[in-house]
């Protein structure tokens, strides 16, 4: 299947490579032309990626009905590029937003594009920088018939049984939002647990413990695998990493929606608050664990310990 991809950051580039290596024809554009050219030249992609030098050229290179996938930072960047792409599309073409957009924005965008006889799918993805290798878990919202048409692309991006049509526009990003809220709580629990182990009177090998717990224990998970990798690379103390932990919005939206529906969500709420606190006093060991995990699964930048911002 032919698909356009706008945005070749950590996730967009991984998607382009996975689709090309799965036999799809990818037309790609990035604001830095060299990134697009380098991607198109990679022999592993089998010549299935072509570089477009503009958004207009990308749309012109696609055969109707066009499917254009956006992999961009949520917010104004997504809106601007979506508006630009829409200006070059024709009725029955499809825009797919794979960023971490707010589900309410996605529902609104679907309505706005429908008024122009264009279709919209919101596709929340999880897998981070590992998606190329193991697949991107995909949560998709939009018109069912449009999803069915796009499903071959989703199936290639995802691991086996790793994607789901969730419902109408906004549903995919809503499910991804709650997924990330849960992620906040899980990461906080791991961070606190390893903080306790790190402070113990025993000389414990935290990498070995994280690895051990992934063999038969009830708390085994991919996050624990990544924790073991982080401890193995950085050492028990994670001394080179600041405990300054960012949040990209989904945790806040999850908490706000929980409050709107009178759903008590104390673990996720407190996990979010802990991230906010980390930026005022980025010296907590548990926060260093969180920062290290975000770097391991998403390639999110970490602050070096010496670069941590002073308390406000």
Largest β-sheet summary:
8 strands, mixed
C-alpha Rg (nearest Å): 21 Å
Class by alpha and beta content: alpha/beta
Please, what is the average pLDDT?
94
The geometry reads as globular
Percent range for β-strand residues: 5-15%
What do these coordinates show?
With 312 residues, this protein is of the alpha/beta class. Helices cover 51% and strands 13% of the residues. The chain has an eight-stranded mixed beta sheet with strand order 3-2-1-4-5-6-7-8, sandwiched between helices. The chain is globular, with a radius of gyration of 21 Å. The relative contact order is 0.10.
List its salient traits.
single chain; 312 residues; alpha/beta; 13 helices; 13% strand
Outline:
The chain has 312 residues and is an alpha/beta fold. Helix content is 51%, strand content 13%.
Protein topology:
Blueprint: E1 2-6, H1 10-21, E2 25-29, H2 33-41, E3 49-51, H3 55-61, E4 67-70, H4 76-87, E5 94-97, H5 103-114, E6 119-126, H6 131-134, E7 137-142, H7 144-157, E8 163-167, H8 171-199, H9 206-213, H10 222-234, H11 250-260, H12 266-278, H13 285-298
Parallel strand pairs: 1-2, 1-4, 2-3, 4-5, 5-6, 7-8
Antiparallel strand pairs: 6-7
Helix pairs in contact: 5-8, 8-11, 8-12, 8-13, 9-10, 10-13
